[in-house]
Amino acid sequence: MRPDRFQPLLISAAQSIPGVTATTLADAGNTTYPYGVSIQSGGKASRWQIVATSAPGDRFDQPEPEPVLGDKPAAPGQATATEGTPAHLKAALAEAVLAADPGEIAAVDLYSRRAEPPKTGHGMTLVFHDASKIYLNHV
After folding, report:
1. Paired sense of beta strands 44-53 and 105-110, if any
2. Region Disordered: what ranges (predicted)?
3. Which of 10, 34, 71, 85 is the 20 to 30 Å CA partner of 27?
4. Cβ(81)–Cβ(88) under 8 Å?
5. What confidence tier does 86 reach under pLDDT thresholds 50, 70, 90?
6. Cβ contact 30:36 at 8 Å
């Protein structure tokens, strides 16, 4: 899945979470990143950058190939962190994206559940059945 198709899926999924509103980073006035979302929850705003690794053989100068569908992974579980914080949103976003996904996502890796989380802190990697990846990073 390419970022230009994932971004609207993420916004729609985020808006399905009670008390959450979402828009593109560009619409929120942040043009630092080409793809990303700004999320309002619990009276707080957070920004999430979308970065991708394309599927093998995928060329961005060509139309995106048909989606590869497969079994959905298990949801990572409900958030236990304080509502509106990046830690809470990360888990809630993973749940919402998986619910909205038509079957393209093969795995979800929440950074906080790794033995050694990356310096980005909050975020996740979504692996798709076509072997592409989306990295959703709190910025």
Report:
1. unpaired
2. 56-83
3. 85
4. yes
5. low
6. yes
Q: Which residue has the tokens 């890796």?
A: 109
In this structure, how many other beta carbons lie within 10 angstroms of the beta carbon of residue 57? 9
- Single-letter residue type at 38: S
Q: What is the pLDDT of residue 77?
A: 66
The pTM of the full predicted model, rounded to 2 decimals, is 0.89
Calculate the alpha carbon distances from 117 to 35, 49, 100 in Å.
23, 17, 26
β-strand 20-24 against 105-110: which pairing, if any? unpaired
The answer to which of 5-9, 40-44, 67-71 has the lowest mean pLDDT is 40-44
Amino acid at 45: A
- Report the chain's C-alpha Rg in angstroms: 14
